Amino acid sequence: MKKLIAEFIGTLWLVLGGCGSAVLAAGFPELGIGFVGVSLAFGLTVITMAYAIGHIYGCHLNPAVSIGLWVGGRFDGKDVLPYIIAQVIGGIAGAGILFLIASGKPDFALGGFAANGYAEHSPGGFSMTSALIIEVAMTFIFLFVILGSTYTKAPRGFAGLAIGLCLTLIHL
């Protein structure tokens, strides 16, 4: 139960810190943090949680990571579904907190809630094919970094930095 609570809190923090930076701080022309700031926010949330809860059992924070670690033989299959459930509930809770904060602004509109996508919903106008390719490629590299930096022969104590900085780079 302790590890599921940790996953819940960690994923809540990832959504609140990462998405929250996009919703609450990226759009101010004079003071906003922009794309670089949002990228750093996602990476920093992972770094902080890696050191806060990583010792409990992993700090996956994302179903793709849990599944990838299971496929890689580094995570017990019986824990995959409970982790995913904790992550989804944590993500919903983080988004709920963010909604409560953001909706306190007089001109708040749910349509501008840091959502993007492909084609006309992409800042660069990228196609669905491009979105799918980048998602698969970046998830592969992210899991490669996670598996490599947490390997028993990897330098101890640095996995959180490697993983968090990798996520920063992915968002950049």
UniProtKB/TrEMBL annotation:
GO molecular function terms listed in the Swiss-Prot or TrEMBL record: channel activity
Its membrane topology: Multi-pass membrane protein
Transmembrane residue ranges: 35-59, 80-104, 124-147
Family annotation (InterPro entries): Aquaporin-like (IPR023271), Aquaporin_transptr (IPR034294), MIP (IPR000425), MIP_CS (IPR022357)
PROSITE patterns from the UniProt entry: MIP, PROKAR_LIPOPROTEIN
Key words, A-Z: Membrane, Transmembrane, Transmembrane helix, Transport
Keyword Protease: no
Gene3D superfamilies, alphabetized: Glycerol uptake facilitator protein (1.20.1080.10)
Chief place where the protein resides: membrane
Coiled-coil parts of chain: none
Protein location: Membrane
PANTHER family: AQUAPORIN NIP1-1-RELATED (PTHR45724:SF13), AQUAPORIN NIP2-1 (PTHR45724)
Family named by the database record: Belongs to the MIP/aquaporin (TC 1.A.8) family.
The protein, known as: Aquaporin Z
Species whose genome carries this gene: Maribacter arcticus
Phylogenetic placement of the source organism: Bacteria, Pseudomonadati, Bacteroidota, Flavobacteriia, Flavobacteriales
